[in-house]
Amino acid sequence: MAGAEATITERTRVVPGEDRRSVVLKWLFLPLRWLYKLYFAVVFFGSLVLLYIPFRVLLFRPHRYQRAFRLKRAWAFFLQCALGIPLRVERKGRLPVAPYIICCNHSSYLDIIQMYNVVPTYFLFMGKYELLRWPLFNIFFKGMNIAVNRGDRVEAAKAFRKAAETLDRGVSLALFPEGTIPNYTPRMKPFKDGAFRLAIEKQVPIVPITFLDHWRLFGEPAELLSRARPGLARAVLHDAVPTAGLTMDDLVALRDRVYRTIEEPLLRT
User: Fold this and answer.
1) Which of 36, 104, 136, 247 is the most buried (most CB within 10 A)?
2) How many angstroms separate the CA atoms of 60 and 77, rounded?
C-alpha cells in the first residue's frame, strides 16, 4: 500500500488536492504559522512546567496513576481551549467495559493531546521509544505509560508483555497501529499487527477512533512549511469491534476491519 508512496519526502510536500497556488499560500502565511508554533510551544511547555511537580508526585507511585490520568485530562482540556483547537466528537457507539484497546489514526502530535478529550475512562498509552528523549514529557513514559522500542525485538517484546499485563489488570490501552505519523497524511500507513495480536490473545474489544482534522491544523513543528493554525478538530468514536472467539487465524481480517473503520470517515473529508 505504501510502496508507491515511499518516495514522498516529508509531511510538508504537496498533499492530494493541493497545487502550486497552495504552496504560494504556504509561503505567504509562513510568518503566522511560525508565530502559532511559537505560541503552541510556550503554552504546551509552559503549562507542563507548572504541572511538572504535581505530575512527578502522582507518577511516583503506581496507585496514584489514576489521579495522574485525571490531571492529564484536565491539562488536555486546557490545551484544546488555550490553543484554539476545540474538539467535536461524533460518538457512533459506547465505550465497552474495560479493558479494551483504543486504535487511532496518527496524523499529528495533536492526536496524543486530544485522545484524553475523547476517552474519559482510565487508559495507558503505548508510544514510540523516542518519547523517552523528550524533555519534561518523558516523565509519562518512565513508569505510567509504555514506550515501545520497535528497533529492538527484545525490548519490543518486553513492552508488549507489559501491555498484556496491563490488560490483565483490567486497564485499557491506547496506541497508534501505524507506529508513526505517515509522510502522506491524511492517508494512513498499513497497520502493524501488535495491537490486534494483543486483542485476540486477551479477548478484549478494540475501540477505533478517527481524527479528521489534526493533519490540517498542526504538522511537524520543525518543518519549515508545515501547517500550524487554530481551528475546529473533529473525531469519530466508532462502535467497539469484538474479538471474543477470534483466534490468530483471524488477525489479518480483524486488522483490516479496524483499518477500514478508521479510514472510512477520512475518505469522506
Assistant:
1) 104
2) 23
Q: Which of 193, 200, 131 lies closest to 167 in space, CA to CA?
A: 200
Distance from the first to the final alpha carbon of the chain: 20
Q: Where does the chain show beta strands of DSSP type E?
A: 87-91, 101-104, 123-128, 146-148, 172-175, 206-211, 233-237
Question: What's the chain's length in residues?
Answer: 269
d(CA 37, CA 39) in angstroms, rounded, equals: 5
Strand 146-148 with 87-91, pairing: unpaired
Specify whether the CB–CB gap between 261 and 207 falls below 8 A: no
Task: With both helix axes pointing from N to C terminus, report the angle between 65-82 and 110-118 in degrees, rounded to the nearest 10.
Answer: 110
Q: Which three cell numbers stand for residue 150?
A: 520497535
Calculate the alpha carbon distances from 164 to 60, 77, 97, 202 in Å: 22, 29, 17, 7
**pLDDT bracket for residue 55 (50, 70, 90):** very high
CB 208 within 8 A of CB 241: yes
Strands 146-148 and 123-128: parallel
Q: Which three cell numbers stand for residue 151?
A: 528497533
**Structural domains of the chain sorted by starting position, each given as residue range(s) with its CATH number in brackets:** 15-267 (3.40.1130)
Per-residue pLDDT tens digits for 121-180 = 999 999 887 777 777 788 898 889 998 887 788 888 888 999 999 999 999 999 999 988
